[in-house]
Specification:
203 residues, mainly alpha, 9 helices, 4 strands, 54% helix, globular
Amino acid sequence: MGGVFTTLDMRTTVFSYGAPELLLLDAALTDISKIPVFSTAGCSDAKELDQQAGLEGGLSILMAAQSGANLIHDVGYLESGLLGSLDMLVLSNEAISMVKRIMRGISVNQETLAVDVISRVGPGGHFLDDDHTISHFKKEIWIPELIDRSNLEEWSRAGHKNMGDRVRQRVHQILETHHPQPLEEKMIHELKAIIARADEKYA
């Protein structure tokens, strides 16, 4: 079950995709539902990929994930669901990756507490070249694909590209290089059979 529930902006009569009420209503539906439910996220009322799109899209992705929705859709929509944006889709993918790391949480066990490592390194030491750090940092520390963490000098030397520039570059890279694998004939046949049964049952 599911639906897109939000508020009507009384000044513009826009059915808002970026309103906090949309996030609250989706979370409430997920909370009361005892069956799989879909939710809305990664979308915005902005007309282009800008700061508003980033703010609304990112918050909605985090809220949808934390609510426990089973299927999160509408990723990449702008202008209150009237516009599909490849740029917004790529930006949202970065936010989804970050939120997945947040949702994984912090593991607390003998290995992650690393009391023996703390004792071995001792006061004045450091953990950067410790075997424990080397074996854990890649899975514990989220590595962004688009978010920039360089210093000002490095960022300037690289062309002082903002997030919008990096997103657009990634969109072009995907369009130029990605070649999806076609479905196997067996899968196509099975999908057509499912559709035929549904057409027969609900026609």
